[in-house]
């Protein structure tokens, strides 16, 4: 299965910084067999799309499920498509936490993305409280059942334990392996990326873990040199497998 490394820039960078980081990521990863993606903030999408070659996928971090209308502040799938956007992150834990996104909303957004030919990159994962209560599997199963009802098989998934995002505490290969196996057990052989404090230091071991098909990278993706070292680790892991 193809391997993916996708940058989630969240709400960072100015326009010029975004353009320069995108160019560097494209340069550093030229010739790599790994599928590279960059998800900048909405206002930088067009600039980033124009700055990188077609092999680098460009994605949005969110979309709304209606095509158009009186929805102040929202951005639709057709709008993203018209910018040349390839994929869209849906259901990131920060959207679930700060903007009240539910599994039902995630499902509507996935359908809207598929409708216009955007690849949905759907994020799932449990919080620390849920893991400590022994409910990690149950939570992820619920997110899959409700969020992916009727749409599984046409998406990319990212398992991102909430407790590992931006904390410097990554899931261990055993923890990631267990959850990726659970997800693939339910959905079949969908690509499942791991996300949560991925760094050049931990990427190799995680990339060699069965069921890990690449990474969704937050903090480390803001530094193109670090990001490209993560890509190299994924390449090396393929050779070693
Ligand atoms: P992180 O973020 O790499 O900074 O932990 C990952 C994500 O939120 O997608």
What would you note in describing this structure?
- There is one protein chain.
- The protein is of the alpha/beta class and 241 residues long.
- The chain is 43% helix and 15% strand.
- It contains 10 helices and 8 strands.
- It has helices spanning 15-28, 45-51, 77-82, 93-98, 103-115, 128-132, 136-147, 173-187, 200-207, 224-240, and strands at 4-8, 35-39, 57-60, 87-90, 119-124, 156-159, 192-195, 214-217.
- Strands 1-2-3-4-5-6-7-8 form an 8-stranded parallel beta barrel, surrounded by 6 helices.
- Helix 8 (173-187) links the parallel strand 6 (156-159) and strand 7 (192-195).
- It starts with a strand and ends with a helix.
- It binds 2-phosphoglycolic acid.
- 2-phosphoglycolic acid binds next to strand 8.
- 2-phosphoglycolic acid is lined by residues 8, 160, 165-166, 195-198, 216-220.
The number of distinct β-strands equals 8
* Widest sheet: strand ordering: 1-2-3-4-5-6-7-8
Based on secondary structure, the structural category is alpha/beta
Output mean pLDDT. 96
Distance between the termini: 12 Å
Q: Unreliable segments (pLDDT under 50, ≥5 consecutive)?
A: none
Described by the principal axes of the CA atoms, the overall outline is globular
Strand content: 5-15%
One letter per element, helices H and strands E, the order comes to EHEHEHEHHEHHEHEHEH
Number of helices: 10
